[in-house]
Design brief:
Blueprint lengths: L7 E5 L5 H16 L3 E7 L4 E3 L2 E6 L5 H19 L3 E5 L4 H9 L3 E6 L3 H5 L7 H19 L4 E4 L2 H8 L5 E3 L23 E5 L8 H10 L7 E5 L7 H5 L8 E3 L5 H8 L5 E3 L5 H4 L4 H8 L4 E4 L2 H10 L2 E4 L4 H13 L1 H17 L3 H17 L2
Helix pairs in contact: 2-3, 7-13, 11-14
Length: 378
């Protein structure tokens, strides 16, 4: 089916994170280039048009409860005003919005980025005794509503496996980098880079910050290395705890930095770390930062999860370790710092894998095919 001129669609999200908004804007840019009239409804500072996408701002709110109530209502109100033919929403708290739009006879796609029931088990702000009942309720709720949507988008193979039996129109679309958003590989000679490794993203306990810092304390003293962190601690008091660990003296904190600064960081280090702990949702996830490191041409040190090992081994782009073992992490860091030619070759192979396979081009085609299919069906 050819896209009708000006076919109006709305993409809805309630997240505040600039990183997450980039993910949704990637989809919006693809749709706009294909001829759709796209509006992204999102907590944002102002209305504006970016890359042909109309951003409709709803007010930002302070806490989780406000986001799950006030923000959800504001997103629904703007979505109803838009009166689009098709809506594509992200975030499980927007499921009620999706159901209300379906009640208005609109076509609605639910985009599932994570195994949300399993995510609940890792929510530090929830009491332990309440997490499993909430996980059970969330799983039953998603199972109940899944077939009521026009289509589902699954970001990982595990999510797709779960939902295909619930909604036959489930499409597996991976969050790979856009070609224009790939971090450029650096021309800096490998031997001129600092003997440092980097982690960029949310800094939390379940993403392995304790283990990373402990590992730095175990790296050989004659290697003048640093762990450079780009991101924010969550919760903020976690930094005070981690600062007491052996290895903190070899940590450099940058805080939140621009995308350009991230590219400069990756161009001056010799490895990128993705050492999420083996939480249920992590084991089957596919973190975008892995592909960002690869696109920057630096080797990776990642958690030894089956999917991650498959990607890294196939590309030959890094090392996999037990994320709970600081000594193993330290050993991997030492190896890449002392085997410079192999480390540089791993980085090149990772970059080539992103250019040939792990990029948005193929995924974009699947997204556009899904839209055509959904709009073609009454």
């Amino acid at each position: 089916m050819a896209v009708e001129s000006g076919e109006k669609v709305g993409v809805l999200t309630s997240v505040h994170s600039p990183f997450d908004v980039r993910i949704f804007h990637k989809q919006c840019k693809s749709l706009a280039r294909a001829g759709y009239e796209v509006t992204l409804i999102v907590p944002h500072g102002r209305d504006e048009v970016v890359h042909g996408v109309q951003i409709k701002a709803v007010p930002k709110t302070g806490g989780r409860i406000s986001r799950m109530t006030k923000t959800v209502w504001q997103v629904y109100r703007e979505a109803a005003r838009l009166n689009a033919r098709l809506y594509h929403f992200h975030d499980p708290e927007l499921i009620p919005v999706g159901l209300l739009l379906r009640a208005r006879r609109k076509k609605v796609i639910y985009d599932i980025h994570e195994d949300y029931p399993e995510v609940i088990l890792s929510k530090y702000y929830l009491r332990q005794w309440v997490r499993r009942p909430l996980r059970w309720l969330m799983r039953r709720f998603e199972d109940f509503v899944a077939h009521r949507f026009s289509a589902l988008v699954a970001a990982t193979p595990a999510i797709a496996d779960r939902f295909w039996k619930l909604n036959a129109r489930t499409t597996f679309i991976q969050n790979f980098p856009l070609e224009e958003e790939m971090i450029e590989s650096c021309d800096k000679r490998w031997h001129d880079r600092t003997a440092s490794v980097a982690y960029a993203g949310g800094i939390t306990a379940i993403r392995g910050i304790r283990e990373m810092v402990k590992a730095m304390g175990l790296v050989r003293g004659d290697l003048a290395t640093k762990l450079i962190l780009a991101g924010e601690f969550s919760p903020p008091n976690l930094r005070e705890e981690v600062a007491c660990l052996p290895g903190w003296s070899r940590v450099e904190m940058l805080g939140l930095i621009s995308r350009r600064a991230v590219a400069q960081l990756f161009g001056n280090v010799r490895a990128g770390l993705v050492l999420f702990l083996p939480e249920p949702n992590h084991v089957r996830s596919q973190p975008n930062k892995l592909f960002e490191y690869m696109s920057a041409g630096i080797p990776v040190i990642v958690s030894d999860f089956p999917l991650w090992r498959e990607i890294v081994d196939e590309a030959g782009c890094g090392l996999v370790v037990n994320p709970l073992d600081p000594q193993a992490i330290a050993g991997a860091i030492e190896y890449l710092l002392t085997h410079t030619e192999e480390a540089e070759a791993m980085g090149r192979r990772g970059r080539e894998a992103v250019e040939k396979k792990y990029n948005w081009g193929t995924e974009e085609k699947k997204l556009l095919a899904l839209y055509e299919e959904v709009l073609a069906n009454a």
